[in-house]
Amino acid sequence: MKLESRFWMTVDGKKVFGKGPCILLKNIDRLGSLNKAAREMNMSYSKAWSIIHGAERALGYALVETKSGGLDGGGSFLTVEAKRLVRAYEEFSKEAEELVNKLYEDYFKDF
Amino acid sequence: MKLESRFWMTVDGKKVFGKGPCILLKNIDRLGSLNKAAREMNMSYSKAWSIIHGAERALGYALVETKSGGLDGGGSFLTVEAKRLVRAYEEFSKEAEELVNKLYEDYFKDF
DNA sequence: TTTCGTTGTTCTTGTGTTAGTATAACGCCA
DNA sequence: TGGCGTTATACTAACACAAGAACAACGAAA
Predict the structure, then answer these.
(1) pLDDT value of position B13
(2) Partners of residue A22 in chain B, C-beta under 8 Å
(3) I need a surface site. Which of A16, A55, A62, B55 has the fewest CB within 10 A?
């Protein structure tokens, strides 16, 4: 029996940012392309696109800069705000998970 | 911008118990009836039933005792194991939420 | 000017989940 | 015995969500 946890940010009840968008952003950063990131994650392009732009609308600022055209077709790149957000969320959720897992051990050690 | 968190227990990846089943069990305990609890939560009886029995199957022990027939039609009542589980989960998740919210303030105070 | 792989956008299709319905069994009481 | 409000279970309809297709725009290079 194992604990799993999830953390996400909301603005008046609406989901704004969480694990899924965070992973997607990291993959976009690594691959330089929303298309490639979506394919690697077995996610449709349109789904990936709507995740990113839904988060942008909710947050009120851009997470990716895009470029279309050119030899390589273009690509997507994280804004500095997105990089900061990803870093903060990752560090936070890592530590939160550890904390919560310790607490779980305390409360459920004799279950 | 507010943090929301969710915690649930799993057995080899499968969800076993979490917030939803916990609330449902509390309502069953309070109302003495799965039917009444489901109606109060705007949930179909069949959905409520499958939540409870799915959790029982995954956990390997009974969470509710049921009685059908009689003047009042019967009802559902929590087993001692269910009461213990609900209490542990509630205390755990309350403290976990507080901890995680404090941590969130630290990491996101200047966002 | 053509080719290419992106982004951006809309629409249709399929799938999985949930609600809702139907039906039987139960047991106390009038 | 008949009525009632439960539990228990199966089946069907409706809805939400995701996949995927389709198509235009873009811009660098051949």
Answers:
(1) 83
(2) none
(3) A62
